[in-house]
Specification:
alpha+beta; two-stranded antiparallel sheet; 42% helix; 4 strands
Length: 74
């Protein structure tokens, strides 16, 4: 378990993430993290659930229209 302290940053608040935690999240300075509600509280992740939904829809469309997309690519 990692304990983080909330600090004042301008007119907002923030936390400093230790290097070990960033390594586990596989992210670094400038990357985006997403906060989602979970049964255990909130979850911090580099995974964007909205993008995943959009990619699933795109894959379904590409699968359904494979022949049309092949002809268009020629």
């Amino acid at each position: 378990m990692t304990k983080l302290k909330i600090r004042s940053v301008g007119n907002s608040f923030g936390v400093i993430l230790p290097a070990e935690l960033l390594e586990k999240l596989r992210c670094g300075e400038g990357d985006e993290l997403f906060v989602t509600d979970s049964p255990n509280g909130v979850e911090l992740s580099p995974y964007n659930p909205e993008l995943e939904k959009q990619l699933d829809i795109a894959e379904e469309i590409m699968r359904e229209n494979r022949d049309v997309l092949r002809r268009l690519a020629k």
